[in-house]
Amino acid sequence: MKKQNLVIAGGGSTYTLGMIMSLIAEKDNFPLKSITFYDIDAKRQERVAKATEIILKEKYPEVEEFNYTTDKEEAFTGADFVFVQIRTGGLEMRAKDEEIPLSHGVVGQETCGPGGMAYGMRSIGDMIELINDIRTYASEAWILNYTNPAAIVAEALKREFPNDNKILNICDMPAAIMVSFAGILDKEIWDLVPEYFGLNHFGWFTKIRDKEGNDLTDKLKGHILNKGFAPEDAEIAEDPSWKKTFKQVERMLTDFPEYLPNTYLQYYLYPEKMVDKVDPEYTRANQVMDGREKRVQELSDSITEAGTTEGADLEVDIHGRYMVRVAASLAYNIGDTYIVIVENNGIISNLPDDAMVEVPAQLTSNGPKPFAVGEIPTFQKGLIEGQLAYEKLVVDAYFEQDYNKALQALTLNRTVVDTPVAKEILDELIEANEDYWPELK
Ligand code: G6P
Ligand code: MN
């Protein structure tokens, strides 16, 4: 088995320690020769990197080299895989993405609605620059991107790099949901075979089977309807916000029993309730800054100070494990099935070919081979078409620097609908993002 050289772009992320623990847990499946962190924020990255040095020394001595840098050439030269997890504007800008729409009575969310558009308009430019940098120094590296908003980023990257077949956009939400399915079914996530279709953060599981082919969908639905639904992955199981989000799956399934929904559909199907539920002065971004971010930074510091991981509360999470197994399937031509984001090209036969859709695909060293989904029903198709048009208009607005397209996008979004409200929110987002967005004319 060839040992891989891995770069984590966005090394200072709150997800990095979980990723390192996942790489350790998966070392037999995806053995590493070197790990390199790359970030534009040297200080933030160093905090995580110092702890990582100790973790690797104790738990992954097989890694021959660990480096962290803000230099692109040093980072990407020789890379086999680059995991991309950047957040343009940081959690401070996430807070604005959430607060501004909420102050107009509209869903304020990281990736859904106006917040998602604002974040998308920030992410696209940095993602394009980063991919160009990676390709300058590592023309053949696999780029696994889970930078948000993944749907908009995926659409923009497809347009900018139409011939680059080694960029794969992924989201961990379907996997995190499947961890809870597995818990209910008394199985492991890796034992389950999903059928799924949609856009990123906008999809449905149509079937869940085990590896023997037994259909477990009705059992799962019955359990959720009778006993509810809760997050089970370590990273989110105890988080009150995620608990509420998973609980809402029961409600969605009651109202629309056909398929098992992605949790993110709650923002589009119950926008009023989602607005009522949150404190506009203390949004999810604030919770994450005071929660995960603080926890990870303190954990890093305490490992560094102690010089050992002994007693440190380090956990493997599905986010990391999923990405690592995806990488392994690509690296070693394994051909396992994962839910990833790919260009439709007839997979969902009654949606446009050029849509970036989220579906199960077999992953080999030649890339993703998605499975045919066929025709989807009118309700889901209608919802998806509106959302898809919104996503495409956001990307149009970015590339064409077109105010009107941005306004059309927001007006189309189910979380907004009303044109004057869309305009007010858009104008405030433009002001808040003046350091990040292209100028809209
Ligand atoms: C899931 C989604 C990610 C999203 C994250 C937000 O993992 O798949 O796309 O960024 O949740 O979680 P947070 O705890 O930061 O609100
Ligand atoms: Mn996601």
TrEMBL record:
The chain crosses the membrane at residues 6-25. Residues 196-416 form the Glycosyl hydrolase family 4 C-terminal domain. CDD domains: GH4_GlvA_pagL_like (cd05298). It holds the Pfam family Glyco_hydro_4. Keywords: Cobalt, Glycosidase, Hydrolase, Iron, Manganese, Membrane, Metal-binding, NAD, Nickel, Transmembrane, Transmembrane helix. One of its GO terms (biological process) is carbohydrate metabolic process. Substrate binds at R94, N148, R284. The keyword Heme does not apply. This is Family 4 glycosyl hydrolase, alpha-galactosidase/6-phospho-beta-glucosidase. Its cofactor is NAD(+). Homotetramer. The record marks E110 as: Increases basicity of active site Tyr. Binds 1 NAD(+) per subunit. The active site is at D172, Y264. Mn(2+) binds at C171, H201. Belongs to the glycosyl hydrolase 4 family. GO terms for molecular function: hydrolase activity, hydrolyzing O-glycosyl compounds; metal ion binding; oxidoreductase activity, acting on the CH-OH group of donors, NAD or NADP as acceptor.
